[in-house]
């Protein structure tokens, strides 16, 4: 069965590819001829996730799933949250992380969590799956892998940031892989019933 991943973020595609199992053929937006920016205007992570999946289902009629994710920092009342991608006013990951570190300067509460909400639209029926990983915001970036806020986020129980891990290691506990595992379990149950 074909499933389109409604994302323009190549890093998300790289993390999800290979984890869907053999029952599903992963299609990209490019594969289905979609060159559009996906709408993200609801102001919430679950809302934006639904909006992106709805867009692809409505315009292209293919079963699909979307990922909306964000970094929620406790001392900043959950910022950047749904605004993670454009926190500094641009998509520049270094500027976004710098703004975050500047706002947290001198603050000993470094608690944060990454959240992913996947919205699956399977033959027109919608389901959502959430994944969360808790960790700490470092005082300066470390590592060159990954994307976004990976260099400043260290998951609890580890001594390396996401940017110091391979994709496989990050997938071992990340917010995205946790949401994906729930979605894959649901898809497999559907396929076998
Ligand atoms: P799509 O909407 O096309 O999927 P996007 O990059 O705009 O791609 P989001 O709206 O979900 O995706 O933006 C979330 C932002 O949060 C993303 O651009 C990163 O800056 C950050 N982010 C999300 N997941 C992350 C991760 O696993 N590691 C580091 N930063 C992440």
TrEMBL record:
<dbReference type="Pfam" id="PF01725">
    <property type="entry name" value="Ham1p_like"/>
</dbReference>
<dbReference type="GO" id="GO:0036222">
    <property type="term" value="F:XTP diphosphatase activity"/>
</dbReference>
<dbReference type="InterPro" id="IPR029001">
    <property type="entry name" value="ITPase-like_fam"/>
</dbReference>
<feature type="binding site">
    <location>
        <position position="170"/>
    </location>
    <ligand>
        <name>substrate</name>
    </ligand>
</feature>
<dbReference type="GO" id="GO:0005829">
    <property type="term" value="C:cytosol"/>
</dbReference>
<dbReference type="InterPro" id="IPR020922">
    <property type="entry name" value="dITP/XTP_pyrophosphatase"/>
</dbReference>
<feature type="active site" description="Proton acceptor">
    <location>
        <position position="68"/>
    </location>
</feature>
<feature type="binding site">
    <location>
        <begin position="7"/>
        <end position="12"/>
    </location>
    <ligand>
        <name>substrate</name>
    </ligand>
</feature>
<feature type="binding site">
    <location>
        <position position="69"/>
    </location>
    <ligand>
        <name>substrate</name>
    </ligand>
</feature>
<dbReference type="GO" id="GO:0036220">
    <property type="term" value="F:ITP diphosphatase activity"/>
</dbReference>
<protein>
    <recommendedName>
        <fullName>dITP/XTP pyrophosphatase</fullName>
        <ecNumber>3.6.1.66</ecNumber>
    </recommendedName>
</protein>
<dbReference type="GO" id="GO:0000166">
    <property type="term" value="F:nucleotide binding"/>
</dbReference>
<keyword id="KW-0546">Nucleotide metabolism</keyword>
<keyword id="KW-0479">Metal-binding</keyword>
<comment type="subunit">
    <text>Homodimer.</text>
</comment>
<dbReference type="GO" id="GO:0017111">
    <property type="term" value="F:ribonucleoside triphosphate phosphatase activity"/>
</dbReference>
<dbReference type="GO" id="GO:0046872">
    <property type="term" value="F:metal ion binding"/>
</dbReference>
<feature type="binding site">
    <location>
        <position position="68"/>
    </location>
    <ligand>
        <name>Mg(2+)</name>
    </ligand>
</feature>
<keyword id="KW-0378">Hydrolase</keyword>
<dbReference type="GO" id="GO:0009146">
    <property type="term" value="P:purine nucleoside triphosphate catabolic process"/>
</dbReference>
<keyword id="KW-0547">Nucleotide-binding</keyword>
<dbReference type="GO" id="GO:0035870">
    <property type="term" value="F:dITP diphosphatase activity"/>
</dbReference>
<feature type="binding site">
    <location>
        <begin position="175"/>
        <end position="176"/>
    </location>
    <ligand>
        <name>substrate</name>
    </ligand>
</feature>
<comment type="function">
    <text>Pyrophosphatase that catalyzes the hydrolysis of nucleoside triphosphates to their monophosphate derivatives, with a high preference for the non-canonical purine nucleotides XTP (xanthosine triphosphate), dITP (deoxyinosine triphosphate) and ITP. Seems to function as a house-cleaning enzyme that removes non-canonical purine nucleotides from the nucleotide pool, thus preventing their incorporation into DNA/RNA and avoiding chromosomal lesions.</text>
</comment>
<feature type="binding site">
    <location>
        <begin position="147"/>
        <end position="150"/>
    </location>
    <ligand>
        <name>substrate</name>
    </ligand>
</feature>
<dbReference type="InterPro" id="IPR002637">
    <property type="entry name" value="RdgB/HAM1"/>
</dbReference>
<comment type="similarity">
    <text>Belongs to the HAM1 NTPase family.</text>
</comment>
<keyword id="KW-0460">Magnesium</keyword>
<dbReference type="GO" id="GO:0009117">
    <property type="term" value="P:nucleotide metabolic process"/>
</dbReference>
